[in-house]
């Protein structure tokens, strides 16, 4: 492996890590200012970093082609960066735009978060840079501020109008807990979740159908929700109570109704999921996950043949519940299973993919892991 010294001729000042995430429930609720319930994965983006005094950003990735991308302060300001380097560049631009007096850096990345798999590799990359810069330049920003900064970087300088869930999950999750987050005021609670202790496993099944949130579909859905809220005279769909759903739907044009139904019922599923975890019944989450998938498939329409198949095959093989996680259009499916059925469920899903002629999914198990941190 190429060392930092071999790349840049000196040692890094430290190393930082930020994780990918899976969202247990609460999908497409964040930009409607509703609730989400993600956990961090053990998979992280790690960055070794050192300050530079000339304002340049030099970037290398162990997953890249070996080259070092060098950006001058002018390149950064012009926003002409392409490829994966857009993400670190966007974070530095967002810091500068917010008035932080930061300079350049040599950054060397290594990641085991799969890309395009709905596991938030981009938020992990952004948060790794944000947390490294915070330490390197002594900014003293809190986790929440760093998450908001990383989100702003993606919204303004990468051009994806994402909500705040992925960045908040990568920054604020803790090992052994799910993050119950209210995306309106960012109040958050760590909800203990000991899957192994409850005799459960969480399978994360990457369907290998690459999703790309920058392709416009996500932005269209978001715009649809914002239009519906405007027609209802509300700041966001979060304000529609479950008891007022039918009345709200009756005031909307046909094409917006399913979007609103998903958001409002999904917010309710998050609350019910948290109540079950608080009551010490994580297995009770199963049916809520599967109902959430049906809503994403039938109302929000962000599922695809492979994610639907993974859910159906997992449930048929005995999973307590399953659903796609993340923005959709491919990506990963999570399945909550009893520990002694984990292998059988994984095997059935793989077999179902083979029979349907799909590429085999990549399946691993997840336990709630830590958020972004300095590692050395
Ligand atoms: C993507 C976005 C998040 C969130 C999810 C859907 O992961 O980055 O902000 O909207 O989709 O829940």
Can you give a write-up of this model?
With 376 residues, the chain is α+β, with helices and mostly antiparallel strands. The protein folds into two domains: 4-190, Ribosomal Protein S5, domain 2, CATH 3.30.230; 194-366, GHMP kinase, C-terminal domain (Alpha-Beta Plaits, 2-Layer Sandwich). The protein is 39% helix and 21% strand. The protein contains twelve helices and 13 strands. The protein has helices spanning 4-8, 73-78, 86-97, 121-136, 143-158, 165-172, 217-231, 245-250, 257-278, 285-300, 305-316, 342-355; strands spanning 14-23, 35-36, 38-52, 57-61, 69-71, 104-111, 177-182, 188-192, 200-206, 321-325, 332-338, 362-366, 373-374. The chain has a six-stranded mixed sheet with strand order 5-4-6-3-1-13. The protein has a four-stranded antiparallel sheet with strand order 10-11-9-12. Strand 7 and strand 8 (188-192) form a beta hairpin. The longest helix has 22 residues, at 257-278. Alpha-D-galactopyranose (GLA) binds next to helix 6.
List the topology elements.
Elements: H1 4-8, E1 14-23, E2 35-36, E3 38-52, E4 57-61, E5 69-71, H2 73-78, H3 86-97, E6 104-111, H4 121-136, H5 143-158, H6 165-172, E7 177-182, E8 188-192, E9 200-206, H7 217-231, H8 245-250, H9 257-278, H10 285-300, H11 305-316, E10 321-325, E11 332-338, H12 342-355, E12 362-366, E13 373-374
Parallel strand pairs: 4-6
Antiparallel strand pairs: 1-3, 1-13, 2-7, 3-6, 4-5, 7-8, 9-11, 9-12, 10-11
The chain binds alpha-D-galactopyranose.
């Amino acid at each position: 492996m190429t060392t930092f010294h071999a790349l840049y001729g000196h040692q890094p000042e430290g190393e930082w890590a930020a994780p990918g995430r899976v969202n247990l429930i609460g999908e497409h609720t964040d930009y409607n200012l509703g609730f989400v319930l993600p956990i961090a994965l053990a998979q992280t983006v790690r960055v070794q970093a050192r300050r530079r005094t000339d304002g340049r950003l030099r970037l290398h990735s162990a997953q890249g082609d070996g080259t070092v991308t060098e950006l001058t302060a002018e390149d950064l300001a012009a926003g002409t960066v392409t490829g994966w380097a857009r993400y670190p560049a966007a974070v530095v631009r967002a810091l500068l735009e917010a008035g932080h007096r930061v300079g350049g850096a040599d950054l060397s990345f290594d990641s085991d978060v799969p890309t395009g798999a709905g596991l938030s590799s981009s938020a992990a990359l952004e948060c790794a840079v944000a947390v490294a810069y915070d330490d390197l330049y002594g900014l003293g920003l809190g986790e929440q501020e760093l998450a908001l900064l990383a989100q702003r970087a993606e919204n303004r300088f990468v051009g994806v109008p994402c909500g705040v869930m992925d960045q908040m999950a990568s920054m604020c999750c803790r090992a052994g807990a799910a993050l119950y987050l209210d995306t309106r005021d960012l109040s958050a609670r760590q909800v203990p979740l000991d899957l192994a202790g409850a005799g459960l496993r969480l399978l994360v099944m990457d369907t290998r159908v690459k999703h790309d949130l920058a392709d416009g579909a996500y932005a269209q859905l978001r715009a649809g929700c914002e239009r519906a809220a405007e027609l209802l005279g509300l700041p966001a769909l979060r304000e529609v109570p479950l008891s007022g759903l039918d009345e709200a739907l009756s005031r909307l044009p046909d094409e917006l109704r399913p979007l609103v139904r998903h958001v409002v019922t999904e917010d309710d599923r998050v609350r019910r999921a948290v109540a079950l975890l608080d009551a010490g019944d994580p297995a009770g989450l199963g049916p809520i996950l599967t109902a959430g998938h049906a809503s994403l498939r039938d109302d929000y329409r962000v599922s695809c043949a492979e994610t639907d198949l993974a859910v159906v095959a997992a449930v048929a093989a005995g999973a307590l519940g399953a659903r796609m996680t993340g923005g959709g259009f491919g990506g990963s499916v999570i399945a909550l299973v009893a520990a002694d059925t984990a292998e059988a469920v994984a095997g059935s899903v793989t077999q179902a993919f083979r029979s349907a002629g799909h590429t085999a999914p990549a399946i691993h198990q997840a336990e709630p892991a830590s958020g972004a941190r300095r590692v050395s």
